[in-house]
Design goal:
Number of strands: 7
Structural class: alpha+beta
Shape: globular
Oligomer: single chain
Strand content: 5-15%
Order of helices and strands: EHEEEEHHHHHEEHHHHHHHHH
Strand order of the largest sheet: 1-5-4-3-2
Distance between the termini: 52 Å
């Protein structure tokens, strides 16, 4: 049984936060968002800044999940380096990064390879329906590592994972056996945590950076995908740095140097702006 209560978070926009592409298990219906987090179904809406919560989850969990403890004004000040990011901050003000479950985030971004958001959402939905536990009618928890480590690969074909199937099973086997201890990644420095994730088959720099940013509090992760590459090439092509920097890895290093410790926030604002509006005029 759930109950309804209200919160008044400071500087938080629910729609931007859930619509920006960082998390895949939320669906919007009118003014309400419904999502599965862990073993709970949440229903959220926002009215004049007030967050309306229909769930058994306590406010303390939402504070952590939506990173309401992040000092956004200070973060904005540190990343606001040019007209492009300034425009994104003003238009999408209140977008916050989400602290996702490490295991679910890992598999979700492994499923994102060579894909788009609707397809990723469909794969996660199928995985949960076939191998998770039903929480309430029509809503399922994300399958645990042990379940996916022991699943028949032919059974995973129902989830339409394609070439990702063996990679998902291999990752599940490492986590289930303890060979990969996800808790350790929180304690590792960013570059070492990144190297460890990239030892998993099917994880490159972009996926590793997404997982570290959205699940392991590595704010210095700067995922570079096609959108971010296009942004850099379009708006920063005159920067002499890019005379020799043309690959994704080099662009990630640039993002860390240019935006500083909270470059992950800058990346998400730029990514969302590009996905929603394409190339924007700064004048």
């Amino acid at each position: 049984m759930s109950w309804t209560y209200r919160l008044k978070p400071e500087l938080f926009d629910l729609n931007h936060t859930l619509d920006c592409g960082q998390v895949f298990r939320w669906v919007r219906d009118g003014d309400w968002w419904t999502g599965v987090v862990g073993d709970q179904v949440l229903r959220l809406s926002q009215d004049q800044g007030q967050l309306i919560v229909d769930s058994k989850i306590l406010p303390e969990f939402l504070t952590r999940y939506f990173r309401l403890d992040d000092n956004l004004p200070s973060i904005y000040e540190s990343i606001n380096r040019d007209l492009l990011i300034d425009r994104a901050i003003r238009k999408y003000r209140g977008l916050r990064l989400i602290r996702q479950d490490p295991w679910e985030c890992l598999i979700s971004y492994m499923l994102s390879t060579a894909s788009n958001i609707p397809t990723i959402q469909k794969r996660i939905c199928l995985l949960s329906r076939f191998f998770g536990q039903e929480i309430e009618p029509g809503y399922f928890s994300f399958p645990d590592p042990e379940t996916l480590a022991n699943v028949d690969p032919a059974e995973l074909d129902k989830c339409k994972l394609g070439f990702r199937t063996q990679n998902i099973i291999a990752a599940a086997e490492e986590v289930a056996s303890g060979e990969l201890d996800l808790d350790v990644l929180f304690r590792l420095e960013y570059r070492y945590a990144r190297e460890r994730l990239m030892r998993l088959r099917g994880i490159g720099e972009k996926v590793a950076d997404c997982v570290l940013l959205f699940a392991f509090d590595k704010m210095e992760a700067f995922p570079v995908d096609t959108h971010i590459k296009q942004i850099i090439q379009h708006y920063h092509i005159d920067d002499s740095y890019f005379e020799t920097c043309t690959n994704m890895s080099c662009m990630g290093n640039w993002g860390r140097d240019y935006f500083g410790h909270y470059c992950g926030y800058a990346q998400e604002y730029l990514y969302y702006q590009k996905r929603m509006e394409g190339f924007v005029s700064l004048y």
